[in-house]
Amino acid sequence: MPLLKVPELISPVSHFKSTIGLIKEEVIIYPIKKPFEIVDWIAGVIVCYDLALFIILVSLGIDIYSRVDGLSESELDSCMYTMLYVLIHIIIVMILIVALTILLPQRHFKIGYYFTIAQNFLLVFWIIQFNKIFISGNKVNKKRKQFIFTIFAQIVAIPLLFGTTYICSQVFLQFSKLRPEYDGDDLYEVIYGGEDSSTKKIDLS
Fold first, then answer.
1. Cα angle 51, 66, 81; round to 5
2. Distance between CA atoms of 28 and 194, rounded to whole angstroms?
3. Residue partners of 145: CB distance under 8 A and separation at least 6
4. d(C-alpha 49, C-alpha 32), whole Å
5. How far apart (Å, rounded) are the C-alpha atoms in residues 125 and 130?
6. The model scores a pTM over 0.85
């Protein structure tokens, strides 16, 4: 009896390769630049904090120059020490943000994020202590007249400080989420598939 010839089974993969040809997929790694240069970022931070310092110092200088009668030296010193606190605070925060930006590896930028968030609480503490001087206590009206320009300077300086802090925190946070490759801080985009491949995609996760 003649043997039946069983047709050879062809896998879908083999059939696909034989009909349209072998599709060669490639993994291409391109180094990409950071969203901005580190020098530009540091310069922007310094300018914002220096502007806040300038506004506070100018308004405080005008207020000190125009003395109001009826306030003792100790009362003036109390207000001055409160202002001195915020000036030192701004300088320290500015220096630390610049230092963290330069010294921290990109994968550890969340440290900078937590720092910028935490220092906001100290700034809020100063705002409460400073304005409490002009709301309650003795000689409130005279204190307001003495530091009238400094009081109104808050309208510009405080939003500037909070805005700069928010931007810094978001930059640190976004950089910490980017995936570094190899040993440096270089960031890479990984493209799956050749240049002409219909399955080409970009993975930045």
1. 60
2. 8
3. 68
4. 30
5. 9
6. no
For 99-108, what is each residue's pLDDT tens digit?
988 888 877 8
Report the C-alpha gap between 118 and 89 in whole angstroms.
13
Residue 48: C-alpha distances to residues 77, 99, 153 (Å): 28, 16, 15
Query: Buried b / exposed e across 98-118, counting CB within 10 Å, b at 16+?
Result: bebbeebebeebeebbebbee
Residue 48 in tokens = 């914002």
Per 3-state DSSP, the chain is made up of helix, strand and coil in percentages (nearest 5) of 65, 10, 30
Q: Which two tokens stand for residue 128?
A: 């409460």
The DSSP letter of residue 107 is: G
Euclidean distance between CA atoms 174 and 37, whole angstroms: 15
* Structure confidence by residue, pLDDT tens digits, 117-168: 999 998 999 888 888 888 877 788 888 888 888 889 888 999 999 999 998 8
Q: Which two tokens mark 26?
A: 């490639």
- As separate numbers, helices (DSSP H) first and strands (DSSP E) second, the chain gives 6, 3
Of 106, 98, 70, 90, residue with least CA distance to 188: 106
Count of residues making up the chain:
205
Specify whether the CB–CB gap between 172 and 116 falls below 8 A: yes
pLDDT in tens, 20-67: 444 444 444 444 444 445 667 788 888 999 999 999 999 988 888 877
Domain extents for the chain? 37-166
